[in-house]
Structure formats: C-alpha cells, structure tokens
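#struct-help
A.M.: can someone run this one for me? Single chain, 234 residues.
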Amino acid sequence: MSDKKYAEIESIFAAIDHIKQEHGLSEDEDWSVGEGPDEYVKLNKDFEIADEKRLIATFREFGLHDLADMLLTNRAEYDRLRERGRRSVHHAEEEACALLDLVKRYAEEARKAASAGAYLAAVTSLGAGVEGLLLNRCLRSRTKAKRIVEKLSRRLKPHYIDDPSSWTFETLIDVCLKAGWLPSISTSIAIYNSASLANHLRLMRNYVHPGRCVRKIPGLKLIDAIMKPQRQFT
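D.P.: on it. Structure tokens below:
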C-alpha cells in the first residue's frame, strides 16, 4: 500500500485528497472520525472495505486461511486477538494482560485434556497455567519480588534477578509464598497449603520429561496411577 501498488485504494486516496483540498485542508489534516462531508465519510468506508479485501487476500496468499475465515465470520474474536497481539508488540507494560490471556488458554487446554483422559497433557497445561499466575503476581510487584529473591538460597536464586520471566517454577513458588501471595485454601473438607499444592503440581508436571520419568518411577505402568486424578480432587 505504501508503494501505491493497489489501484482501487489509490483512487480512493486521490478522491479523499481532492475533497480535503476543496475544503481548505492541508495534506496532513483530516476531519475527526464521523465528521466531514458526506462524500468524505463514504470514501473512508470504501477504503475500509477495500483495505479489508486486500488483507484477506494477503492472508490467503500466505496460507493463513484460518485468519481470513475468522475475519469474515467472527469479527469480534478476530479483533480481540488482534488487539492482544498489538499490546504484546507495542505496549510492553501490558505484558500482564497478555500473560493472563495465556493462562486462560492453558486452563482451557487442561480441561479439554482431562475430559479426554489425557492426564499427563492436562497436568502439563495446568502446571504452565499456575506458573503463569505466579509469574504475573511477581510482575505486578517487581520491587518486592526482587527484594525476596535476592535472599533466596543459592539453589533457588535466579541468574537474572531483574527478570521474573526467567525464574524457575520452584523459585516463583518460593517467592510468592514468602511474599504472602499464597494463602491457604479453606474448604468444607480441609485447609490446603497453596504452596504445597503448587509444588506437587510442579513435580507431577516434571514427569513430562522422559529421562526424569524413567529415573523416578520404577515401572512406567505407574504413570497412570500418578496422573489419574483422585475422586476427592475432581
């Protein structure tokens, strides 16, 4: 578009420039959205339609048919995902919002896997989701998290203290526990230690590594017993 390769769009631009000149506007001036002469408003709508057609054609040219179909049939979801991508690129301070979107995706994947009986996959996704939540909490209070992580043991202290995204799952759990961000969970049955539950999930998730699984479990037939959720936790 910047190289003026699309004739139909260039004709719209030319018509818009002509109307602006007639009304005394310079090249870099425009009316606010929804304002201006009727023909100017119509031309802007024509541009949006032409621009979208070219975008869809570009998606299909590169084999991104899922995006093209989404834009045509589910514009609300397309706009939501596009905004999420825009934030991740242009608004680094909004990384927490993008992270929470990712956590929701992990949680949904875990539910789908568990409902299909794929418990190893469910534990892997659920562990990633919990790790994302702990990371998000540390990102929201970087100063406090950094102050705590500096006092951890050598084994848990990360190499990059200023970057919570580089911390291990175990380090995130310990920092959040010491910061008071992992309170106990009370139910009608019992009171559960959040940090212990998180660490248990972390250990289960680690069995996704074949070498670790073989070393730690005497017989692969025990994997199903470990991964299968108990009735009281379902």
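A.M.: thanks! The mean pLDDT is 85.
D.P.: also worth noting: The beta strands are 185-186, 191-192.
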